[in-house]
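Subject: sequence -> structure tokens, single chain

Hey, anyone have a minute? Need the predicted structure for the following. Not urgent.
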Amino acid sequence: MTGRRDHALAFVVLAMRWLVGVVFLYASFDKLTDPAAFAQAIANYRMVPMPLLHAFAWLLPVVEAVVGAALILGWQRRGAALLAAVMTVMFIVAIGAALARDLDISCGCFHTEGGHGVGRDLLVRDVLLLLASLVPLLAPRDRWSLDSLLKRDH
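Reply:
Had a minute. Here:
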């Protein structure tokens, strides 16, 4: 029974790693190709100081892409999952602040222009993404990861 449980847990960790990784990697594409539009999407939240806006608009999708790829591959799994969780909390705070201030803006999540509007459903989606990112962060091991393969070679 323990073997089945370990196998099931390993599958859940892999599935959550891939789910979160694909979401973050996909989210980075449009932002990387149109950083000016993404900077405007960030500016709409009125939370990032203007002098930091363009650096933030460039850095965030790069980190999203690296975190997404790392989670998919299982490279530095816990660090990547921690960054995914921290970024997701940041997104939850931004969405909550926009809702509290009754801003009618696009979230800038996957598409820099004309994307999903900020709403409670977006908040729920990000809370679920946060929970999914906690699985690879807190799992004791991940047998189907690049980290595991590299450890076996030594």
